[in-house]
């Protein structure tokens, strides 16, 4: 089977590069590498999610599939008095995210290698963020939705970005089957941002 960015140990040779991106009005620097998602620059979907997401200042946040760090770091700036836990199955992405946290002086993050939510069993969060690995298949994406629900506090929200052509309608239907409230926050060039809130039932 060919390797993907959601492989645990990428076999691709290294191709490190430095990126500079403005996110939520702040400049971030990132080191990326071969074998990780969107190595040449932050993908458009992640940027749409970053600009749309609403993160309370004191929030406990979980970033699932953090890659080399853009979504989680933007969230960490917004949750300045809170904390962001960042997970990725890809060991190279985790190492890069740790390096990039130091590069940007971001201290309110914990970055862990984890197959989906394995490293945070028993913990709950105010906000879960994900740009789900569509190429891993619908089963994996829907498992992320299900596990996000289990790891959210009551009143907490899951924010996701997904392209219409890559299954946004079925994703929304799945979210509506799990969560009390699902809102399409924005759409941009075929990308949809959904906010699913865990309400009391």
UniProtKB/TrEMBL annotation:
According to the lineage, what is the superkingdom? Answer: Bacteria
* Annotated Gene3D superfamilies: Vaccinia Virus protein VP39
* Residues annotated as domain Methyltransferase small: 29-195
Name its GO BP terms in alphabetical order.
methylation
Question: Which Pfam families does UniProt cross-reference here?
Answer: MTS
Name-wise, this protein is: Methyltransferase
How far does the signal peptide extend, from start to end residue? none
Q: Which UniProt keywords apply?
A: Methyltransferase, Transferase
**What are the leading ranks of the lineage?**
Bacteria, Bacillati, Bacillota, Bacilli, Bacillales
Q: Which gene encodes it?
A: rsmC
Entry-linked SUPFAM superfamilies = S-adenosyl-L-methionine-dependent methyltransferases
Q: For this protein, what is any one GO molecular function term?
A: methyltransferase activity
InterPro entries linked to this entry: RsmC/RlmG (IPR046977), SAM-dependent_MTases_sf (IPR029063), Small_mtfrase_dom (IPR007848)
């Amino acid at each position: 089977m060919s390797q993907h960015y959601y492989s645990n140990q990428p076999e691709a040779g290294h191709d490190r590069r430095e990126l500079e991106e403005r996110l939520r009005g702040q400049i971030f620097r990132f080191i990326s590498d071969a074998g990780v998602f969107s190595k040449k620059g932050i993908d458009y979907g992640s940027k749409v999610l970053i600009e749309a997401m609403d993160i309370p200042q004191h929030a406990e946040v979980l970033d699932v599939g953090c890659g080399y760090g853009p979504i989680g770091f933007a969230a960490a700036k917004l949750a300045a008095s809170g904390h962001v836990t960042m997970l990725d199955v890809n060991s190279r992405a985790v190492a890069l995210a740790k390096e990039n946290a130091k590069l940007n002086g971001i201290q309110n993050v914990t970055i862990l290698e984890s197959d989906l939510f394995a490293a945070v069993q028993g913990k709950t969060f105010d906000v879960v963020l994900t740009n789900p690995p569509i190429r891993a298949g619908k089963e994996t994406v829907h498992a992320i939705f299900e596990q996000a629900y289990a790891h959210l506090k009551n009143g907490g929200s899951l924010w996701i970005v997904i392209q219409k052509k890559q299954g946004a309608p079925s994703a929304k239907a799945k979210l509506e089957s799990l969560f009390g409230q699902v809102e399409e926050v924005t759409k941009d060039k075929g990308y949809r941002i959904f906010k699913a809130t865990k309400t009391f039932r």
